[in-house]
Design brief:
alpha+beta; single chain; seven-stranded antiparallel beta sheet; 12 strands
Length: 238
Amino acid sequence: MSDVQPEVILAQEQGTELRAGGVSKELKAEFGVGVREGTLVLTSERLIFACTNDRGEELPIGYYAEHLLLYSEVEDLASIPNQAPNVFIPLSAATARGHKGELGRPSLEVSWKDEGGAHGLVFTETLTGRRKKNLNDWASVIQGIRDGTQKFAALPPTPSADSLEGKVLHVLADMQEKGVLEAEESVEGEYKVDLDPDEVQAACDRLASQRLLVRYLDPSGDVYYRRASPLGEAELSD
C-alpha cells in the first residue's frame, strides 16, 4: 500500500473528540454514547484513536475560562493497547472526508467496512488557531495512501537509542512541538538522567541538520522542535 516500511507514525492530533456517525449498534455499544477525547494518530497503514492512559492539560480559552485537554501520549505504536476503547481503522478499507466545520472546528469523517459490518466515526479538532493544516486536511492524505498515490520522503537513519540524539528523538516522537526545556525535562523524566539545556539544544540542532527534526522560531525568538514526518511536502503537523 505504501513504500514506507515498517509501519510509521505520520501525524498526530492531540485532544481530538470522537463521536459516532451512523455507526452500527455493535459499535455504539462498544464505544458508548456521547463524545470521547484522546489522540488521533495517522500511520502509514492505519488511523488510530488512542484514549487510554489519558493525560490532562489545562488550556486557557478566555480571560476567565479554561479547557481541560485530554490526550494520550503516543511516542510509539507499541504504547497503544490493541483493544477497546482504542479504535484501529485500516486505511486500506477507509473512506475519509474532511469538513472545515463551524466556528473553526475542523473534522474528519471516516467510514469503513470489516467483518463486523459498516462503521462510521467523526473526529473533531479541539486545538484550533493559526495553522497551515487542520484535521480536515488529513482526508486527502488518507485517500492518497489508500490509492497508492501518496508519496513519502526518505528520512535518514535514526541515531542509536543509547545516544542523546536518540533519546531526544524518542520523546519528540509524538509529533508535537517542544522547546528545549520541555525536551530536556521529557528526556530526564523518561531516562532518569541529568542534562544541561545547552547539550539538549545542540542535540536538537544536530537532528535538525540531519532532517530528523524540524526547527521553528516563534515571533518572540524562542526555538521549538518537532519530529519530521515522512509525508514531506504533505506534512500535516504545520
